[in-house]
Amino acid sequence: MPRPLTLIALFLVCVLFFLIRALPAAPFLQKADGLMLAGQPLALHQIHGRIWQGDARWRWGRWRGEANWSTDWRGLLPGLTLDVAGHGMHARGWVAATPGSVRVNDLALQVPLAEISRDMAAGQADGTVTAQVDYLRVYREGRVEVEGTLRYGGGQVTWKDGGSSVPPLDGRLFTEHNVAWLKVTDPQQTLLLDASVEQCEAAVRVYRSWPRLLGVSQGGADDDVVFQVSQPLGG
Q1: Phi–psi pair at 30, nearest 5 degrees
Q2: Which of 20, 26, 63, 133 is 20 to 30 A off residue 183, Cα-Cα?
Q3: Could you tell me the Gene Ontology terms of the biological process aspect for this record (predicted)?
């Protein structure tokens, strides 16, 4: 027969489990209300449900929408299945936190570029970007691991002095030698741009093949770097 202490411990664990399950979500999510993201405060309201499962409305700048969540265990690791939507954008994936990192699995993302670029002074674009991120892990020290794909279905890009039709483009997310990469190619598999995260620094390089695709290049090799920038993460 089980010992009394074992039965008491099991009882306390069950009580703790049901107490956590019954906790309302509002007092916890309200702590994130006003959180600054990219210079804009995140507002959360109309919060319903429990920590275990619920939904809320959100607003960030001119963007607004709704989010819902539910607890989802992957093996012994608890996490949340999150579903966020607004302004034609939709993201759904599994998120979990460990002492040294944050993990995202099975992230499906859809972003309409017309909404993103509407207020950009440099120009506008239409079409939709979709992504399937199988695995993303961001470590406390800034290291990133990622695996997935991106797809731009094609559309029109316009700027002050002109515009161009853009064919479908493909992106690949991968990790190599502890560096997280995004590489974007055209239908002929010509590299247009790449982005990387290494040792807490993000970098982007654009190749001459990109302005050539837009019809504004004046010569040179496709693999010439025409623009590059780097930025410390969080800097």
Answers
A1: -65, -20
A2: 63
A3: protein secretion by the type II secretion system
